[in-house]
Design goal:
Layout: H1 5-30, E1 36-39, E2 41-45, H2 49-55, E3 63-67, E4 71-72, E5 78-88, E6 93-99, E7 101-109, E8 112-126, E9 132-141, E10 148-159, E11 172-182, H3 184-189, E12 199-208, E13 251-253, E14 256-260, H4 264-270, E15 278-282, E16 286-287, E17 292-294, E18 297-302, E19 307-312, E20 315-323, E21 326-341, E22 344-354, E23 360-371, E24 377-379, E25 382-392, H5 394-399, E26 409-418, E27 465-469, H6 476-479, E28 485-486
Parallel strand pairs: 27-28
Antiparallel strand pairs: 1-5, 2-5, 2-12, 3-7, 4-5, 5-6, 6-8, 7-8, 8-9, 9-10, 10-11, 11-12, 11-27, 13-18, 14-17, 14-26, 15-20, 16-17, 18-19, 19-21, 20-21, 21-22, 22-23, 23-25, 24-25, 25-26
Length: about 500
């Protein structure tokens, strides 16, 4: 019996619909990123709360210092930056090495520290199948013998990725609160302070992965001409007193960058348990992890007299102490300028926002801090200042609402201006395009001047949270992880900033 034409069309439609459905399910896996390089990202780790408390406590009387652009995160951990490595979306194997380090010292006797531990170049490694570890370059002194030993990429901790599938990710991969356990090599690195198997602080990280190849077909019309890419927009450098050239003959410049972290304890206070706030760079300013960068710059420099006038673009707004829709803390530092004259260096900025008494301030060119310009060096077409000590002025203290008195040591000042237009500025640490989740504000310290206290693990051995941002598309392979991946398209949150 012949099949009616209408029935044949219905059957054909069902087959086409089934084929389309199968395509929808299969394509995300097929569109996974090809194996490639990891470029950019950050790793946040408090190491171990009890260790930090011991180092800075009444027994060791020690301290810690940051190296290589590492930063603190809300006073509860350390942030390492500029991830670089490889990722295989087919197997989920991921290697990401981070820049920056921390040195711990204590138990000083006769000018010698019995406790001296340095940790740097942390590397996250996840093998196909889910086994993961945290590696680092370590230099430590034995508390028994005093002998210093060094190890390159020692495996400090085993990381638990139970239930997390890293396959098929693209865009930005974020892992939060991954449980960490000390290894034998880690125990040796810590000079025998802890035994293998000790629970360490959880690890959080985010890395930029190779992009998913586009599946959109190119236009079929041969007459179609793609539009020329838009030229990058360079933020305008505002006119300010700092940009005024000195009267003597000088070399003008039109590019530069100023790096300043304001004050580490201030950043910790803003994002800590009391203020529970955030910061937002804009207009040319950027977050470099341990500092903010304002760029570009314009001004002039007279090598004969050492006179310098440089104005930088951008602003950073700090907010916190939110009540309803009002922030008790609201401070914006914008358009910083650096001047050097008569052997004195001055850092200025426009200051606006709320004052502690509930009023507002709108100040231009405030003299925030002073520095000794003897540290300025020229070379390679640049005039550079690298981590010059910076001292708060009385107007600067008032700009910060009296939080710090005049004479307070602020974060060091670094800047570079291009006397040669072809000279390249120092690179900014790459902390990635999406935030890693920081420890809970409840685990941070209650004072902006307090030493950091790392967020501790609750001992539950819970699973880490993983998120993948992939241009708004969540690959089907990630859905198989049982909902442990969350699609996140958001701006940096208070506890994420550094």
């Amino acid at each position: 019996m012949p099949v009616p034409h209408r029935l044949r069309r219905l059957a054909a439609g069902l087959v086409a619909a089934l084929a389309a459905l199968l395509t929808v399910v299969v394509l995300p896996g097929q569109a996974a990123a090809a194996e490639g390089r990891v470029s950019g990202g950050r790793l946040d780790w408090g190491i171990k709360q009890s260790f930090l408390t011991y180092v800075t406590g009444p027994i060791a009387h020690g301290s810690w210092s940051l190296t290589g652009g590492a930063a603190t995160v809300a006073g509860s951990g350390f942030r390492f930056h500029s991830a670089a490595g490889t990722y295989d979306p087919a197997s989920g194997a991921l290697t990401a090495a981070f820049s920056g380090g921390v040195q711990f010292t204590g138990h000083q006797e006769n000018g010698v520290n019995a406790l001296d531990l340095s940790v740097g170049r942390l590397t996250f490694k996840a093998a196909a199948g889910g086994a993961a570890g945290l590696y680092a370059d370590v230099s430590s002194k034995s508390r028994e013998t005093g002998q210093v030993s060094s190890a390159s990429q020692a495996k400090l901790a085993e990381l638990s990725l139970a239930g997390v599938d890293l396959r098929g990710a693209a865009g930005t991969l974020t892992l939060s609160n991954v449980p960490a356990t000390l290894t034998d090599a880690g125990a040796k690195a810590f000079g025998g302070f802890y035994t293998a198997g000790t629970a360490l602080d959880p690890v959080s990280l985010s890395v930029n992965l190779p992009a998913v190849p586009s599946t959109t077909a190119p236009p079929s019309s041969a007459a179609s001409t793609p539009a020329a890419p838009a030229a990058p927009v360079t933020p305008a450098v505002p006119e300010s007193p700092a940009a005024t050239a000195p009267a003597t003959a000088a070399t003008g410049f039109a590019n530069g960058a100023l790096d300043w972290g304001v004050r580490r304890t201030f950043r910790d206070y803003v994002t800590g348990a009391i203020a529970q706030g955030r910061w937002e760079p804009s207009g040319g300013a950027a977050d470099g992890g341990a500092f903010f960068r304002w760029t570009p710059a314009k001004g002039s420099y007279d090598p004969a007299t050492g006179a310098l006038a440089a104005a930088f673009a951008g602003s950073v707004r700090f907010t916190g102490l939110k009540s309803d829709d009002t922030h008790g803390l609201d401070l914006t530092l914008a358009n910083p300028g650096v001047t050097v004259a008569d052997g004195k260096g001055v850092l200025r900025a426009d200051v606006s926002g709320r004052t502690p008494d509930g009023g507002t301030q709108q100040l231009t060119g405030v003299e925030l801090a002073t520095f000794d310009p003897a540290g300025l060096k020229s070379g390679g077409g640049l005039l550079k200042a690298v981590e010059l000590p910076l001292e708060l002025t009385e107007p600067g203290g008032r700009a910060f609402g009296g939080l710090y008195p005049a004479g307070t040591e602020m974060d060091p000042l670094s800047f570079a201006v291009a006397l040669d237009p072809a000279a390249a500025l120092p690179p900014l640490p790459d902390i990635g395009s999406a935030p890693a989740t920081a420890p809970s504000p409840a685990a941070t310290t209650a004072s902006p001047a307090a030493a950091p206290v790392a967020a501790g693990t609750d001992g539950s051995g819970g699973l880490p949270t993983a998120a993948v941002v992939a241009g708004g598309v969540l690959a089907a392979g990630l859905a198989a992880a049982g909902g442990r991946y969350l699609l996140r398209r958001r701006r940096a949150t208070p506890s994420d900033a550094a």
